[in-house]
Amino acid sequence: MKNYEVFALYADLSPGIWSLFFVLYIRGGSSIDIGGGSSIEIVDGSSIDIGGGSSIDIISGFSIEIIDGSSIDIIGGSNIEIVDGSSIDIIGGSSIEIVNGSSIEIVDGSSTDIIGGSSIEIGDGSSIDIIGGSSIDIIGGFSIDIGDCSSIDIGGGSSIDSIGGSSIGIVDGSSTDIILGSSIEIVDGSSIDIIGGSSIEIVDGSSIDIIGGSSIEIVNGSSIEIVDGSSIEIVNGSSIEIVDGSSTDIIGGSSIEIVDGSSIDIIGGSSIEIVNGSSIEIVDGSSTDIIGGSSIEIVDGSSTDIIGGSSIEIGDGSSIDLCQKR
Fold first, then answer.
1. Rounded Cα distance, 258 and 222, in Å
2. In whole angstroms, what is the distance from residue 62 CA to residue 37 CA?
3. Which residues pair with 178 in a beta bridge?
4. 244 DSSP 8-state letter
5. Which residues of 184-205 are buried (b: 16+ CB within 10 A; e: fewer)?
6. How far apart are CA 116 and CA 139, in angstroms?
């Protein structure tokens, strides 16, 4: 029996160029290897379904372009590996859904661009790994939703850029690890929501920049941990809101800088802990509000600098604790 089925496949006979219509099913541990500058274009609501531990490997500058409400579904431990500067472009309300422990691995300067209301949805312990200077660019109201203990790992100077009202949603105990000088940049009213015990860990001099009225919301016992000289910069009226017993830990000379009227709100028994010479700097009329029994704890030579008409407001049994290591 064939390990794939094709319904209404149209192939343009130009060398190395394929136009795919309707559905290509890959099943039973089979694979498609696409190399040498070739491409697949998925157009007009067509789809690729990858099931049963099957895979697509995208090698040597090859690309997949997903356009106009088309989709790739990655199911049952299957995977897409994007290698050697290759790319997936997701355009015009198209989508990738990654389910049941499946994965996308983006390696060696490769990229995924998500444009114009398109989406990636990651569920059931699935993952995206972005390694070796690779990137995901999220543009124009696009979203990544990470649910059900799934993860995004960003390593080796790689990046996620969220632009133009786009969003990253981290839900249900899922996680994003930002490692080795990698970065997330959140621009122009875009957002990250961290919900239901989920987490972001920022390690090894990596960074999150929140710019132009963008926001991070940390809810329901979720957390951000900023470690080893890593940083969050909050600029141009952007914000972090820490709610419902959630936390931000700033460790090992790491920092949060709040600039240009931006804010951190710490609400409902939530906390910020600043440890080992780390710092929060509040500049240019920016603010931190600590409400509802929440706290900031400043330990081991760490600091909070409040500059240029900025403020910290402490209400409702909340506290700032200054102490040496006990």
1. 21
2. 4
3. 154, 202
4. S
5. bbbbbbbbbbbbebbbbbbbeb
6. 7
Phi first, then psi, for residue 20 (nearest 5°) are -110, 125
Instruction: State phi, psi for 185 to the nearest 5 degrees.
Output: -115, 125
Tokens of 135: 């990137």
- Closest of 205, 209, 211 to residue 226, by C-alpha: 205
Residue 1 lies in a domain: no
pLDDT digits (tens, 9 = 90+) for 116-137: 899 999 999 999 999 999 999 9
Distance (Å, rounded) from C-alpha 268 to C-alpha 280? 20
Count of residues in the chain = 326
In a domain, 18, yes or no: no
Nearest one of 160, 203, 202, 158 to 182, comparing CA atoms: 158
Domain carrying residue 211: 132-323
pLDDT digits (tens, 9 = 90+) for 55-95: 788 887 878 888 888 888 888 898 998 998 999 999 899 98
302 CB burial (10 A radius; 0-12, 13-18, 19+): buried
Is residue 106 in some structural domain?
no
Task: Name every residue whose Cβ is closer than 8 Å to that of residue 89 and which is 6 or more positions away in sequence.
Answer: 63, 64, 65, 66, 112, 113, 115
CB atoms within 10 A of CB 299: 18
**Is 44 a member of any domain?**
no
Cβ atoms of 190 and 216 within 8 Å: the answer is no
Number of structural domains the chain divides into: 1
pTM (predicted TM-score): 0.86
